[in-house]
Every structure is written in structure tokens, then in C-alpha cells.
Amino acid sequence: MVVETEVIRHEYLRHDKKFPHVWCPGCGNGIVLGSLLRAIHELGLPKDDVVVASGIGCSSRLTTYIDFNTLHTTHGRALTFATGVKLAKPRLKVITVMGDGDATAIGGNHFIHAARRNINITAVIINNSTYGMTGGQYSPTTPYGSKSTTSVYGHVEHDFSIAELAVTAGAVFVARGTVYHAAQLDKLLEQAITKRGFSVVEVISNCHVQHGRRNKLGDAVTMITGFRDRAVPVAKAAKMSAEEMRGKFTIGVLCDVDKPVSSEEYDRIRQESCQLPQ
């Protein structure tokens, strides 16, 4: 295991670039980075065949550190850039890394329509319930009553669930993991990357510096171990009442279905139209 970790570290990181990284000590983004690299390594994907796109935010800095074809794009637009890459070069394995605000606030329409179209892209969404990089403002996943720089007396809006939104919008594979359950996260990412169509992995993570500090949730270790206590496997949750699930969330695979992939359908229509009599 130590040898494999060394191989992954030397093979997939840009050592001469932006290290040391910008993430706060204890941030879950580093756990997600490691999990993504292990998943790609386990799948044996050639680096030149992988494209990772990100938007703007703490989590989106991940593309700076990994040695693949990468795009560090504009806020909320990772999926639009990724869609262009996939349409131009269908053979490439395209992955996006986004934060909860990046993906579901300014990028919300892109997210739901990418799911609806079933574009062959994997979306990794790191959900830390806040805009961490820009000062701790509330995001679409900030819990009701929480304090932030834009809700100093308590958040009056209700949060929504990214994973359930993805299922409803039409994604063919949807899973949720946490930065505590790193081994499980590796496997969820492997499944998502190999799935044909639009796949989503929501990763519950911590921002102890912004969200955690303002809401007295403790340090990084306390927040991360808290995910262990609140996470319930999907199969177990199905047998629990709403009262038993209060304050908890499901982890595992929420959806795994098959649908026609839009980029392949587009190519089919294009080929057929070229054969029509002029």
C-alpha cells in the first residue's frame, strides 16, 4: 500500500507547480484529491485520455495539482467547458470537480441540464455547505439556521440535497460519500467514472475555518468524525423512519440506471443526416 501511494504521488501530481497547496490544514479537499487519483489509477486510465475541468472555489483548485489534461475555468461553468471537450473529443474521459456553490448556485442550470441531457461526463461535487474561498457566504446547501457572513443572524432559507436533485434531473448514476469514508469514496468514484452517461458523486466535506467556526462545529477532526456518526448507508436508511433519519444523510449509490447517452445520440444523428439525399 505504501509503494502504491508513492507511485500515485509521483505519477499523478504536478510537483513543480503550485505546491505547497492553498487548502487550509485539515480541509477535506485533499482527501477527495487522493481518492480521485486512486480511482483513476485503479482503473488504469492513461493520463493523456483524462480531462479534469473545474470552476472557481477552494475545491476547484484541485485541477492545479494533478497531472492530467486540465481546465481551470470560470465560476459555475466547469460543465459547459467539459461538454465542449466531450463533444469535440468523445473518446476522452471527462471529469469535473466543483463545489456546492459552484455547481448548484451560479452553475445550477448547467448542472440540471447536463443531467437531463445525459452527457457522458462525471461530476464530482464537494459539498462543504459554504463558499469557503470567498469569505464564508451561505450556499444552496447551507443548513437552515446556520450562520455565515451573509446570514449573521441565522440562515432563513432551506438547503436542498445535491444528490437527490441529480436523481430527479435525470443523472444515470448518483452517489454520495464523505471525506471520512475515504475507502468507500474510492469505489464510488470508480463506478461513476466507468458509467456511461452523466454520473454524479456528491462528497460531504468540511470547512472548519468558515462554516465550522461560525457555527461552533469544532475543528477539522471533529467535523470529519461527525460525518461518520451522521452518515447512514442507503439500504439501512430505507428501513428507518423520518424521525430516525433526522439530522442524518444517506451514503452510497442512490441511482444506477441506463439511458441513451446524448453525445452518442448526437453523433448518430449527424452520421445519419450526412447520408440523407441532398
UniProtKB/TrEMBL annotation:
A Pfam family: TPP_enzyme_C
GO terms of biological process kind: cellular respiration; small molecule metabolic process
Domain Thiamine pyrophosphate enzyme TPP-binding: 56-203
MF annotations from Gene Ontology: oxidoreductase activity, acting on the aldehyde or oxo group of donors, iron-sulfur protein as acceptor; thiamine pyrophosphate binding
Cited InterPro entries: 2-oxoacid:Fd_oxidoreductase, THDP-binding, TPP_enzyme_TPP-bd
CDD domains: TPP_OGFOR (cd03375)
Keywords of this entry: Oxidoreductase
Classification via PANTHER family: 2-OXOGLUTARATE OXIDOREDUCTASE SUBUNIT KORB-RELATED (PTHR48084), 2-OXOGLUTARATE SYNTHASE SUBUNIT KORB (PTHR48084:SF1)
Protein name as annotated: 2-oxoglutarate ferredoxin oxidoreductase, beta subunit
Organism from which the protein derives: Desulfofustis glycolicus DSM 9705
Lineage: Bacteria, Pseudomonadati, Thermodesulfobacteriota, Desulfobulbia, Desulfobulbales
